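Exercise 4. Each item below gives a protein and its sequence. For each, produce the structure-token representation.

Item: CDP-Glycerol:Poly(Glycerophosphate) glycerophosphotransferase (Candidatus Galligastranaerophilus intestinavium).
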Amino acid sequence: MYKILIYAHDPGGINATKPLEESLRAAGFEVVSHFKILPENTINNFNPDLIITGTSANDKTEKNIWLKAKNKNIKTLAILDHWVNYGIRFSKYGLLELDKFNKNPDIFPDYIIVPNNFAKEEMIKDGVRAEIIFPLGNPHFEQIKLNAPKCSEKYTDTILFCSEPYIEDYGAGKEKIAASDIYNFCKKNSLKLIIKLHPKEDVSKYKEFEDINVKILKEAALTELMQKCALTISMTSMVLIEGAILHLPILSYQPSETNPDNFILTKQKVLPFINNNIELCKYLTDIVLNRQPLEYNFDINFDAKEKIANFIRGEICQS
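Answer:
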């Protein structure tokens, strides 16, 4: 039986790869999976024919797996979970060394799965070879659509801000400025604010915003929370992609950013490009206070699991 090992380190990579376990087993493959930590000697003991990984931008475990697998003549396939930092994920650099990356990636798996053709084009611009990139989708998107809870309860006076670990990943970021502007609007208009942390963030990061009308959450049933709140705001988080898939009220706020192309939903004009507090308050007034929903269209394919299983069976197993 053809054996597949699945491993991912970061939350985005885990979300993108974990849904493949069941579909690949159903397709007749023997599958073993590990997430976050890969036990020593797993590759030697299981001796897989194929290793599927995420594409962590900072942690180097996946890159080391690709190199080790190449030496053992094991095929590797990596899944890109987001439209950001395309090339550096396949280089020796981490996000704190972004200034050193000169679009010359040199650490590759045998195959790279990306969400769509746009991601493929952007990855090619970052120096990745076109012939190893396949736009088959992200399995996580299917899970979002299939598993979204039915939620009728609404918090019409509550804004949800989903933070991102820019400070943790890059050493600097505007997420606290974004939170501050949203907090001030909520305080002025007697609204409640929920700050949902990224797994890499600590509650102490937003301690200054602790208030009777502010909740800072490390853990939460995020999709359900997004359905309940009047609006979900983030900067460039995958959370907004998930919200768009479910057609929920969402907004991207990127303080002082000059380039809308840095986030897929503002680049493709799915969402408005908001980079200052005046514009933010205008949209918050319309959407939350005046209850005028923001209209947007977002189309994406939801058959990534089937496509990837067929690709493995037809392309990789036969090579």
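Check: The CA atoms of residues 80 and 114 lie 5 Å apart.
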